[in-house]
Sequence to fold (253 residues):
Amino acid sequence: MGLITDIQRFSVDDGPGIRTTVFFKGCNLDCVWCHNPETKSPNPQIRIVAGRSMTCGREISPEELAKIVSRDAAYYNRSGGGVTFSGGEPLLQCEFLFDCLKLCRENGINTVVDTAGCVPFDRFEPLLPFVDLFLYDVKLIDETEHIKYTGVSNAIILENLRKLVDTGANVTVRTILLPGINDNAAYFVEFAHFIAGFGVKSVDVLPYHNMGESKYAQIGEEYKFSGRTVPDEKLTAQFREIISQFSRDNQYQ
Fold:
């Protein structure tokens, strides 16, 4: 059995095509900008929405989850989509994740795992034959900044990224454009150079958004990143272009 918070159908932001995104409960990073704070705790918790109490976190079996995911197989087939396991951190429930991935593979469903990679690498190894794409989150490249804003070092994250790429796995690195932290061209030029050293061939920049801010009050927690200006699409496109230009010039070899 595994513990999840939500199953979101018809998602288009968590990998290629139309996808079903499964949000695992529990995360070992504490990002101050997190838009899914209800996924951080590894235990069920109460969430108050519009004056009504609801339990955030439910157990589900791999078989039940695979059955739900398979309902939209026709949409996956037409769009090149599938299922994305997100969170939280799905690799904290690696045995459950393995069983889910295996069932999806048996059902012919494309699989994506969205991870921050802050786990021992041996948790990746059994999953490799069953994952079509890893979305690998690199929050910040400076270790001091990473500790300040996520609560943990990025040393194991970067070490695991190198190991994962070396296995030949399909990896897209994702990073977030954070107002007041890395929202300048110099940082993204540095980021492009840094990530190229890992042999990564695909990188995406995601803009910070504050759509999860209301969730903090709902679970009785403080949102520590309030008051930040949400980056507009023009700024995000500018930084994506920096990454893309570096990729074209250097081919991420």
